[in-house]
User: Fold Homoserine dehydrogenase from Cylindrotheca closterium.
Amino acid sequence: MKFVNNLALGLFLACAGPSAAFAPATVASSTKQTSALFADVSIGIFGGGTVGGGIVEILEKKKEYFEKMTGNTLNVKKICVRDASKPRDFELPEGCSVTTEYSDILEDDSIDMVVEVMGGTTQAKDVVYDALKSGKNVVTANKALIAAYMPEIEKLLADINGKRETAVEFRYEAAVCGGIPIIRSLQSDFVGDDVQTVSGIINGCTNFMLTAMDRDGKSYDEALSEASALGYAEEDPTLDVGGFDARSKLKILMRLAYGVDVEEDDIPCSGITELTKLDFEYAKMMGGSIKLVGVASQVDNGDVSAFVSPCYVSADDSLFAVNGATNAVELVSKNLVCTTLIGEGAGRYPTANSCINDIVALAKGDKTPLPFNPASEDTKYEGDYSSDFYIRLKYKDCLGITRQCGETCEKYGVSIHSILQNPIKRKADAAFVLITEKVPVSKIKQVCAEMESLEWCNGPAFYMPVLGENWATAMV
Ligand SMILES: NC(=O)c1ccc[n+]([C@@H]2O[C@H](COP(=O)([O-])OP(=O)(O)OC[C@H]3O[C@@H](n4cnc5c(N)ncnc54)[C@H](OP(=O)(O)O)[C@@H]3O)[C@@H](O)[C@H]2O)c1
Assistant:
């Protein structure tokens, strides 16, 4: 099953979701009756920037619709920002005040729900923890916070809810892939299924850059400054180009799909900084393209391995045609076989849309007692992932290169599938590519280290996984 456009995505939600639109409108226990028809749900938002502004706009625009849907009037009562005097690019709702004091929201007993869209992992952590402790439901878009503190948040929720009659809820749909409903999908639509592989283009900035470099022939620097100008890059772009943003998201998806908690640093992570024009030329020669992909998959014994890396993606892969800042997540599973969710991974309205879905679900009284899904007792994490690999080696011309490559690979048990060589345009760029059969990455590292020490090797070897079992047959 593949859903590759907005219409299909809509259908997916309508067909596969828990029939949210038809659920009876239950009034959240902490809401206050303000009229004969509707109770009042008061919301405090931390952050009035890109996402915060979008949330306020959508809540105001669809107020009546949400009243009918939830039985509650959703009121943004206070917004906390860093600088209250800064002009805002959205209209403040009637009766809403702007503050710089956290306590104005956290200690306001009339506020039922806190939406944290200010970012960071220090003050945002205090805000989220304090809100939960004071019995307020929390919605956040903060993947960095969740990736860094997931087990701690889980424990905090268990401690708090163990002492309460009505559980406080924690929702974070916007934290992974912005507008794509991947969190709720993994929480509710794969419960009877077994996910075998999660692979995704989960960083819009790098996908935008790789598309610009591959399709439009832009240099790395040109692509990065264009991505920054369009607001696709994080404040510190190392998080994007180094693969670290994608790794935080993959960590969250792994917990939801497999029940495993992995330290982020234990997930092998390579960014896009070592890619050169040559790699795009070879990828074209092979008929595919290069994408930064996060992959987590079940290995033969049921354990899970993972990595974030630029990957060769063949033309028949559903990730191949995902260009620009678009995100996509492909789930291969036992029952559904193959499901791909594609959409906007960032931006004001896509991200706010996901926050709104969480807010409305809470206002309806929907429950998600285990926001990270149950932990698995027996699934272990395997750090040494296996794949077919692409190894690019720059060389100085001499005799015996092919023989030495063969000998080095044989020494480490690496089987070579093919050797590719483009016509040499500049001597300094002379390079060839080895494609290997499936092998653990540790072996590839050993092969690369040994090849780099050989006399003909002209600089560091570069390797990346080749995705898909059938990449060779998809070659043109
Ligand atoms: N933008 C996206 O496309 C996107 C996508 C997915 C997830 N997210 C996540 O959503 C969150 C918000 O992102 P954003 O793009 O909306 O950020 P943003 O445009 O920079 O807005 C941040 C807002 O938070 C306020 N703020 C920041 N630090 C604060 C502090 N210490 N105390 C009080 N207020 C503070 C800022 O106040 P001032 O306005 O006064 O400076 C600003 O209004 C982040 O966690 C981000 O990772 C964003």
Observations:
- Confidence is low (pLDDT under 50) at residues 1-30.
- Residues 46-52, 80-83, 86, 117-119, 123, 141-143, 174, 178, 346-347, 351 surround NAP (CB under 6 Å).
- The longest strand covers residues 289-298.
